[in-house]
Amino acid sequence: MRVVVALGGNALLRREERPDAAVQLANIRAAVQALAPLAHEHELVITHGNGPQVGILALESAADRSLSSPYPFDVLGAETQGMIGYWLLQSLQNALPGRQVCALVNQTLVSAADPAFADPAKFVGPVYDQEEAERLAAERGWTVKQDGARWRRVVPSPRPQRVVETGLIRLLLESGAVAVCAGGGGVPVIRDEEGLLSGVEAVVDKDLTAALLAEALDADALLLLTDVPHVFLHYGTGDAEPVGRTTPAALRAQNFPPGSMGPKVDAVCRFVELTGGTAAIGALHDARALLDGTAGTVVTPTGRGLDGRSDGPEDLT
Questions:
Q1: Which position among 122, 183, 185, 305 bears the catalytic label?
Q2: Which one of 188, 261, 296, 317 has the fewest CB atoms closer than 10 angstroms to its CB?
Q3: Ranges of H-type helices in 141-253
């Protein structure tokens, strides 16, 4: 099968961890151990988040007095693709001796008229308490919003329209290589009236880009790997219920937070609706079981897994 995997930010840097290179590299090596079995058996594309990393680079750039102005977010996104791509590339090569692995810096086309530019909502960078977040917002012209119990900076997150290098990624897969790409959702770019590309100040949601890429590559499955074992109804309350196998229609009928699980639900539903394939959301260490349909929240057109069963922790069919 052809499988697209989106690694959540927890695969690189967990909440409250120091963003040191050694910490992130150790997390990536652990993530690769969960992904290596998939690469042995399937064609594999790996995408990843970059929220904490791009936020840190933005802070460093803003504080650098040798610059007349901070680096724009498209440039920072490309920097994180190189850094994280290098770590994943090396770890995958070590785990898959003899297998070709390629990490790409690539672009994602967005619309200049996307309403997200007027309503920043994508969390980037470290967390703060409310007082510090509001102080930084006033000093640096940021927009900040609450993220759980803490506060973070938010930037525009336009909807992805196409991964520019899709054809190249397809060639890599057909050659037998593992492709690491679309990091941080891809570097956001727009196309002008002359057909030329240019970067924009934004961050693209990695899960929506992963779904778009999976569709364009004719993938059989899309896996969104995060820090929870399932999608939960009423998450964070005493009435929380895990969702097992389900359909796009049943999942869309529920309400999920737009800043966290909402885009993931949208991504898996879109992929299944447009391709008839299988998508799943769950924990990184369950990657293989997610693909087998024996763990996590599995979304199919009929609500049944690859084995034909429809039972699960809480079915919404």
A1: 122
A2: 317
A3: 166-174, 206-216, 248-252
- Which of 183, 264, 277, 282 is catalytic? The answer is 264
The DSSP output letter for 97 is T
Pairing mode, strands 297-299 and 245-246: parallel
- Annotated catalytic residue, options 50, 106, 206, 282: 206
Q: What is the mean pLDDT of residues 277-292?
A: 94
Q: Is 206 a catalytic residue?
A: yes
Nearest alpha-carbon partner for 268 in 260, 257, 278:
278
264 given a catalytic annotation: yes
Catalytic residue at 122? yes
Q: What confidence tens digit (pLDDT) does each residue in 19-65 have?
A: 899 999 999 999 999 999 999 999 999 999 998 888 889 889 988 99
- Paired with 188 in beta bridges are 108
Whole-angstrom CA distances from 27 to 15, 84, 229, 249, 307 are 12, 11, 18, 35, 32
Within a 10 A sphere around the Cβ of 41, how many other Cβ atoms? 11
Task: Round to whole Å and give the CA distance between 40 and 220.
Answer: 16
- Amino acid identity, position 256: F
Round to whole Å and give the CA distance between 198 and 74.
9
Counting residues of the chain whose pLDDT is more than 90, the rounded percentage is 73
Q: Classify residue 70 by its DSSP letter.
A: P
Q: Is 10 a catalytic residue?
A: yes
104-118 average pLDDT score: 95
> CA nearest 243: which of 85, 216, 200, 252?
252
Average pLDDT value for residue range 116-141: 88
Query: Is residue 145 flagged as an active site residue?
Result: no
Candidates 9, 185, 277, 293; catalytic one: 9
